[in-house]
Amino acid sequence: MRGDGSPADVRQLLSQRADALSMLLDGDRSKNELTEELGVSRSTVDRAVRELESNGLVRREGSTVAATLAGRLAYDSYRRYCEETAHVGEFGDLLAELPPAATVGHAMLEGATAYRSKPPATGRPANEITALIAEGDRFRACATAVNDAAAVGHLHGLVTERGGSGAVVYTSNLAELIRDEYFRMHHEMVATGRYRAYETDGLPYELFIVDTDESTTVAVLIYNESGTIHGSILNDTEAAVEWAEETFESFVEASTEFTDDFRVGGAGASRAGEADARDGTNPD
C-alpha cells in the first residue's frame, strides 16, 4: 500500500508489514536476506520495502534496507499495542465484571496469572490470596467481604505472631461486620501498633498487596453481578506492584480511619464489652 503517512495508513501498514520491519531492527538486511528469513517470495519483499519506504519507516542504503528512527518507534508502538490487546483478550471475561471506570490497567495485566471460579476448584481464586497472606510479612488490602475466615486468622497471625504489619480499607458494610464479628482479633492487632483500619463507601474490586522477604505479590479479586467470586488476577512484576501501591494509597486517601474503634477505653469500648460477654475474656 502507498499511503500519505497518516496514522490510519501507518497502522494498516504495520498490521501487514510488521514482520518485515522487525527483521530490520537489529541491523541492515539485503532483500535476498529478507526473502530467506521471512520465507516469502522476492516480489513480496519488494512490495513490502516499497510500502515501508513510502511511509518513511525504512530507507535503502545501497543493496541493503535499514529501519529509520520512525520505523523503530512505529514498530515499538505497534508491538506494545499487540501485547496490550492480547492481555485484554486473555483477561477479558474477568475485566467484564468490573465497573467501566475501574482503574485496573495494563501494568496489572502484563505477566499476570488468572484464577477463575470453575469446578472443581471454585474456591481457588480466594484460596490463592489466602495462601499469600499465610506466608506474608506485610499486608495491605481493600476489602468488600470476608470470603474466607482463615484469611482473617492469617492476617491476625501475621501481625500478632510474626511481627508483621497490616492495613486494610474496608467498605462501610464490611467495616460494621468487622466491628461486630471480629472485634477481638482486630483489637489484638491494633494493640501491636502495626495495624490500621480504614472505611470507605464503596470499592470497585478487592485489592491485596502481600510482601515477603523475597518478593511482593499483588492480587485483584473480582465478583460477578450475583456477588459471588468470579476470579482473581495475581502479579508480582515491578510495574504491577507500583500500580497496586499507588492505587491502595488513593483508596486510603479517600477513606476514614477507624483504627481507634478497636482500642478498649476509646470508640470500641462498648463493642469490647459485647465481645467479653460472648467469649468470657478480658481485652486488657
Q: Mind explaining what this structure looks like?
A:
A hairpin with a 4-residue loop joins strand 8 and strand 9 (216-223). The protein has helices spanning 7-23, 31-38, 42-54, 69-95, 106-109, 124-135, 149-160, 172-181, 183-191, 238-253, 269-279; strands at 29-30, 58-61, 64-67, 113-116, 138-143, 165-171, 195-200, 206-211, 216-223, 229-235, 256-257. Helix 2 (31-38) packs across helix 3 (42-54) and helix 7 runs parallel beside helix 9. The longest helix is centred in the first third of the chain and has 27 residues, at 69-95. The protein has 2 domains: 7-76, Arc Repressor Mutant, subunit A (Orthogonal Bundle), CATH 1.10.10.10; 106-279, Endonuclease Chain A (Endonuclease, Chain A, 2-Layer Sandwich). The chain is of the alpha+beta class and 284 residues long. The model has no long low-confidence stretch (mean pLDDT 89). It is 49% helix and 20% strand. The relative contact order is 0.11. Strands 4-10-9-8-5-6-7-11 form an 8-stranded mixed beta sheet, sandwiched between helices. A 3-stranded antiparallel beta sheet has the order 1-3-2. The chain contains 11 helices and 11 strands. GO terms for molecular function: DNA binding; DNA-binding transcription factor activity. Residues 15-84 form the HVO-A0261-like N-terminal domain. Pfam families: FilR1_middle, HVO_A0261_N. Residues 273-284 have a biased composition (Basic and acidic residues). Keywords: DNA-binding, Transcription, Transcription regulation.
